[in-house]
Write a structure and sequence with these properties.
The protein is mainly α and 101 residues long. 60% of the residues lie in helices and 0% in strands. It contains two helices and no strands. The longest helix has 42 residues.
Length: 101
């Protein structure tokens, strides 16, 4: 309890001393570098759709394109999974070889 009271009293004295010092006038902020005019925005290139849908494209063509895209995605996922498994197997073999030494 004595420590708390001592801290509060010290804070009271510090606050009184701080309040007695006059405030210095604020200085306006000055930029370190001269301002340069903004450059105009460059338009981004529009994203190309996976399958360019033309008005003449039939439902069957759209379905075939979607099926092809799905098959490609599945093949890529399968290849990534196989690569990950091979890397894990190699790491396991290296760990076993290091443990034998």
């Amino acid at each position: 309890m004595n420590k708390i009271l001592a801290t509060l009293i010290a804070g009271l004295f510090a606050m009184g001393a701080f309040a007695q010092t006059p405030a210095t006038p604020a200085k306006p902020a000055v930029p370190a570098v001269a301002a340069t005019p903004a450059t105009p925005a460059v338009s981004a290139t529009p994203a190309t759709p996976a399958v360019a849908a033309t008005p003449a494209m039939t439902k069957a063509e759209k379905a075939a394109a979607a099926k092809k895209a799905k098959a490609e995605k599945a093949a890529a996922a399968k290849a990534a999974k196989a690569e990950k498994a091979a890397a894990a197997k190699k790491a396991k073999e290296e760990k076993a070889a290091a443990a034998k030494k």
